[in-house]
């Protein structure tokens, strides 16, 4: 299959990384996790991203996780995209090579952290180096300015790619609120690139702009809500689509009131799925049973548990 033949449609879960109470990986949860996603109609994953605490994992752990997702997903998931970004571009090359060797469907990368690129052209040059390490895999740029602090317009990256050649480049996972840049990227080069939208709380806006694929942390347990939103939108029922998006916004508003971070999100995953995902890695905080009980009561009151069933 050529790079440009790679397509992706629908929800892509950014999976949590299951851990034991002592902080070690709990790989035995990945197989039931795959089934849990499939039961919600979520058929793609984006492994070792921010939700997966990729930046807190060692190289060996990232490789083990990628291997486990690819093997557990075989015949069940459509695409396993492995995130390979970090502080060191040579580590990213190694992870890219590894992802290719284990049969992942695609890779994605954040720009390097600490020493950061500042222009679209510099991002393109980094992607060229990473992409060359996995010449058969479609490569996505992971735009997450909130965390990466790389505040480029992705359209500038797409322009730069006209001179800095990255033969495996396939598009962008866009986790930001700038709908103008997102819209410009969707039509750039006549829609040549895939734009996966990454802010669950405003996926409906991205749908209206023309997006067809979405990466999210809350899809892990609310896949049915977002799939209903997509189906309603595709059927022209905007009111029903808005109702589902409003539920997701109500839910996220509650989490924000309790200091939403990936650690809290991971606890919600355990609460909803009934599987124990363990604590997050430091510096994210463990939450007390008392606090979790309060959050649970608020979610119950707003109908969240009914909506995700
Ligand atoms: C920073 C972050 O966590 N972003 C989430 C969103 O799903 C996000 O949690 C959600 O929109 C709530 O803000 C995804 O874009 C994350 C993601 O795809 C990843 O783990 O890499």
TrEMBL record:
GO CC terms, sorted: cytoplasm
Matching SUPFAM superfamilies: Aldolase
Keywords annotated in UniProt: Carbohydrate metabolism, Cytoplasm, Lyase, Schiff base
Catalytic reaction(s) noted: aceneuramate = aldehydo-N-acetyl-D-mannosamine + pyruvate
Residues annotated as catalytic: 142, 173
Coiled coil spans: none
UniProt GO MF annotations: N-acetylneuraminate lyase activity
Entry keyword annotation includes Flavoprotein: no
Localization per record: Cytoplasm
EC number: 4.1.3.3
Major place of residence: cytoplasm
Residue positions binding pyruvate: 51, 215
Family designation: Belongs to the DapA family. NanA subfamily.
Subunit field text: Homotetramer.
Official protein name in the record: N-acetylneuraminate lyase
């Amino acid at each position: 299959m050529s790079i440009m033949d790679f397509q992706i449609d629908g929800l892509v879960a950014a999976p949590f990384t299951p851990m034991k109470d002592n902080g070690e990986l709990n790989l035995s949860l990945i197989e039931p996790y795959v089934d849990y996603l499939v039961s919600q109609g979520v058929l793609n994953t984006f492994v070792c991203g921010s939700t997966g605490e990729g930046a807190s994992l060692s190289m060996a752990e990232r490789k083990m996780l990628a291997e486990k997702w690819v093997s557990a997903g075989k015949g069940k998931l459509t695409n396993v995209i492995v995130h390979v970004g970090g502080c060191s571009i040579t580590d990213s090359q190694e992870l890219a090579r590894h992802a290719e060797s284990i049969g992942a469907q695609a890779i994605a990368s954040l720009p390097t952290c600490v020493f950061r690129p500042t222009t679209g052209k510099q991002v393109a040059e980094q992607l060229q180096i990473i992409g060359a390490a996995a010449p058969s895999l479609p490569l996505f740029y992971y735009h997450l300015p909130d965390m990466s602090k790389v505040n480029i317009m992705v359209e500038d990256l797409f322009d730069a790619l006209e001179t800095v050649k990255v033969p495996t480049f396939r598009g962008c996972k866009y986790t930001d609120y700038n709908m103008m840049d997102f819209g410009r990227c969707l039509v750039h080069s006549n829609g040549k690139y895939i734009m996966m939208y990454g802010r669950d709380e405003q996926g409906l806006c991205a749908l209206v702009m023309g997006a067809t694929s979405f990466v999210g942390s809350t899809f892990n347990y609310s896949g049915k809500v977002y799939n209903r939103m997509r189906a309603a939108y595709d059927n022209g029922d905007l009111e029903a689509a808005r109702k589902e998006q409003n539920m997701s916004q109500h839910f996220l508003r509650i989490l924000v009131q309790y200091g939403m971070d990936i650690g809290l999100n991971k606890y919600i995953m355990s609460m909803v799925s009934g599987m124990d995902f363990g604590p997050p890695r430091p510096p994210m905080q463990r939450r007390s049973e008392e606090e979790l009980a309060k959050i649970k009561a608020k979610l119950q009151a707003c109908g969240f548990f009914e909506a995700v069933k």
